[in-house]
Amino acid sequence: MNDTTRLLDELNDRSREVLRLVVEAYLETGDPVGSRTLTRSMSEKVSAATVRNVMQDLEYLGLLDSPHVSAGRVPTQMGLRMFVDGLLEVRTLDEQDREKIDATLSSNTADVDQMLDRVGSVLSGITHGASLVLTPKHDAPIRHIEFVSLAPDRALVVLVFADGHVENRLFTPPPGQTPSSMREAANFLNAMIEGRTLGEVRQVIQKEIAARRQEIDQLARELVESGLVVWEDRGEEPTRLIVRGRSNLLDDASDEEDLERIRVLFDDLERKRDIAEFLELTEEGDGVRIFIGSENKLFSLSGSSLVVSPYMNADRKIIGAVGVIGPTRLNYGRIVPIVDYTAQLVGKMLSDRS
């Protein structure tokens, strides 16, 4: 039991109702909520003074805050967390939203990345936020690898998989590479790689490099080791993060401070810092998770919330994630079922294809 759940259990029914009503009104309007407004929505007939006392108690507990000199209250991050954990009423998925998601995934395209691109666009469109889609890693055995020098500081690795899938990945080679050293590195890899996945290749190559260091020259060895960084998916291109709907967040920003927060958010995304952690965020359990403000390390500077769910392959292994990001004043009750349904549908579609 976490701290907010324990605190929620200690609140009486009236305090819970006041907190729920304040949060729901704030999520709908973004404005501070006053005691007189709440008296009209309470299930029991109580005075504004009684409600005001309850709000003061909730403020003392760190669940509500008084912005500026306003008499109204807004929820704190802890108040939002308590609402999401214990008071949120998740709606059933709207039929119109379901049809839009289904239409995206029922397309005949054989390209998974294109399909997931469309998923991101639809999520962004129906939630009016920015969508995030972490695409799956391709885990089929490899048939062939080839390195192509494009410039002194730019090279291309071509990966041909046993199922016919081909990937071209740009990377920065170590200084001093020559076409002959690249050919030597490719020959070295192709001699051992067939029938193995990228994950298996990494382990094999490390053993081979240790056992045969004298058999390949220094430059080729550096190239192979440089490639390993790419294949481990440590924030490089192979694990691809698709972001759609940036303009939705910019349009929603009310002042220069909000705009600056959103610029920081997208700078983070475009640099792909901590992207590996984005998937790890979802690995603690099945289903939708909600990260509010600073709870989410990846977006902690943005003052935003992330609603995210993993999707799985036929073996129930997490291979990617879909999510929606927006201000902390998200319509959680509507967005949670949208993200949940999309993740389940993406997982089923990818499982059926494999």
TrEMBL record:
Which processes are annotated in GO (biological process)?
negative regulation of DNA-templated transcription
Question: Heat-inducible transcription repressor HrcA C-terminal domain location, by residue?
Answer: 113-336
Gene3D superfamilies for this protein: 3.30.450.40, Heat-inducible transcription repressor hrca homolog, domain 3 (3.30.390.60), Winged helix-like DNA-binding domain superfamily/Winged helix DNA-binding domain (1.10.10.10)
The Winged helix-turn-helix transcription repressor HrcA DNA-binding domain covers 11-77
Database matches in SUPFAM superfamilies: GAF domain-like, Winged helix' DNA-binding domain
Q: Which Pfam families match?
A: HrcA, WHD_HrcA
- Top-level taxon of origin: Bacteria
Family named by the database record: Belongs to the HrcA family.
| Function of the molecule | Negative regulator of class I heat shock genes (grpE-dnaK-dnaJ and groELS operons). Prevents heat-shock induction of these operons.
Name of the protein in question = Heat-inducible transcription repressor HrcA
